[in-house]
Amino acid sequence: MRRQRLCLRVKDYQAEWPIAGAPTALVRGFQPLYRTGFGSAYCTDSLPWLRAMPAESVDLVVTSPPYALEFKKEYGNVAKDKYVGWLKPFGVEIQRILKPQGSFVLNIGGSYNQGSPTRSLYHFKALVMLCEEVGFHLAQECFWYNPAKLPSPAEWVTVRRQRVKDSVEYIWWLAKQRFPKANNRKVLTEYSADMKRLLKRGYRPKQRPSGHVITAKFGSDHGGAIPPNLIERGNNESNSGYIRACANAGYKAHPARFPQAIPEFFIKLLTDEGDIVLDPFAGSNMTGATAESLERRWLAAEIKEGYLLASRVRFASLSLSKPTAA
Ligand SMILES: C[S@@+](CC[C@H](N)C(=O)[O-])C[C@H]1O[C@@H](n2cnc3c(N)ncnc32)[C@H](O)[C@@H]1O
């Protein structure tokens, strides 16, 4: 009965959605700060914004919330011991608004304990809470390797030389149900030189020392290599155009952006053209801009107006002088 009512509600909304265009109808009672042909960006606390959305309406959430850092960013960071309690209501809403085959991709960095060269477990506790209390399934743990990361905290890494550089961030790929929509054929990478040679020469089936039997299929060309769960990218590469455009337009650039490669990988892997991608902690709206470039519809929320105004530089179609009203 409850399921029937949910379906009816979603159908009502679907009837109003345009096939293309910003999915503004999903967020009742909120005015976007700007919108494009594919998406809308809202300057708001994303919790009430998420609560205003209908259940089972979004295909993918890709986001990077403020981390529980010792060295605080200008937009504020939640304390480690409060983090799980702070994140949970967002997780509950994200679970509710995702379609049954939808995914929630959460980029979250680790952190040191105060005054000690030991690491906090807060991001693992967040993962356990999202799975055991909210009901997500861990589809895969992925990693962002950022070779451009600075060696920090200085005390333990460059002064006392007791720890090595921390260059990896976690990306928890969570699914609403056990079988989320996903297709790794959409994220194939170029074969290695060795593999190209092997494809040319042909492959003789054999048993590896590990015991795995590798069949002749291994030697067929499948159009590219299946990528690993590690995305290697500096966060300066795909953002330099954004930084230049912010400077030209007189805006301060966002201080903690992820590279385009992160949302791009998951949007390609987990959605189709026209699907809806949402970022509730949008910052410079890299997620929205990437979704748009891949012809997915998008919704973004950011609490700080300055960041969202600046994020307009990512969209060639937008005027920078005044926000485009809904
Ligand atoms: C790590 S940054 C996201 C950066 C983004 N991934 C990018 O590439 O630009 C986190 C953002 O969440 C915003 N934020 C924090 N609490 C929020 C809330 N309750 N609602 C909406 N945005 C929030 C912060 O202002 C900050 O810009």
Core attributes:
326 residues; alpha/beta; 9-stranded mixed β-sheet; two-stranded antiparallel sheet; 10 helices; 11 strands; 31% helix; globular; disordered N terminus; binds S-adenosylmethionine
Descriptive overview:
It is a single chain. The protein is an alpha/beta fold and 326 residues long. It has helices spanning 2-16, 46-51, 80-97, 122-134, 154-159, 193-201, 240-249, 261-270, 286-293, 305-311, and strands spanning 34-35, 39-43, 58-63, 98-108, 137-145, 168-175, 206-207, 213-214, 230-232, 276-279, 297-302. The strands form 2 sheets. Strands 1-2-11-10-3-4-6-5-9 form a 9-stranded mixed sheet, with helices on both faces. The protein has a two-stranded antiparallel ribbon with strand order 7-8. Strand 7 and strand 8 form a beta hairpin. Helix 3 runs parallel beside helix 4. The longest helix is centred in the N-terminal third of the chain and has 18 residues, at 80-97. The radius of gyration is 21 Å and the shape is globular. The structure holds S-adenosylmethionine. S-adenosylmethionine binds next to helix 2 and strand 11.
